[in-house]
Amino acid sequence: MVVAIIAIGTAGVSLALRDASASSLEREAQRLAALLESGRAQSRASGRVVVWRAKERGFEFSGVDGDALPTNWLGTDTAVQGTATLQLGPEPLIEPQGVLLVSTSQPERRLRVATDGLRPFSVQPGSRP
User: Which residues contact 100 (CB under 8 A, 6 or more apart)?
Assistant: First the structure.
């Protein structure tokens, strides 16, 4: 009886735990989508062009005041596949664009953060930038 209870408890815990790298990549993708929308809003409010660029160990926003937006990933396992530059405004409608995020420890894990130019940036299963 005790062994059965332990087995059921162990199974429940293992099902509840998600893969840490998948959770980390998803969290980074959601964060990037929010940051891109923030940069887009700042661009519209100021009337200046705001550009997001991927860097080797992070990213940068040009066209925003000072340190208004962060420039680094929360973890070390996130990278951008290829080169990526996104123009976030100042027009309300921008061209469709996106960026592909990958897990450096598990390159098969990919998420795409993209917009069609009208809707906000969102996280999608990744296959292309």
Answer: 80, 81, 82, 84, 110, 111, 112, 126, 127, 128, 129
Per residue in 26-44, pLDDT tens?
Answer: 999 999 999 999 999 999 9
Domains annotated for the chain, with CATH where assigned, are: 21-125 (3.55.40.10)
Three-state secondary structure call for residue 25:
helix
How far is 124 from 101, CA to CA, in rounded Å? 10
Three-state SS for 51-108 is EEEEECCEEEEECCCCCCCCCCCCCCCEEECCCCEEECCCCCCCCCEEEEEEECCCCC
Both tokens of 104, joined, read 């450096």
Helix (H) / strand (E) containing 46: helix 20-46
pTM, rounded to two decimals: 0.81
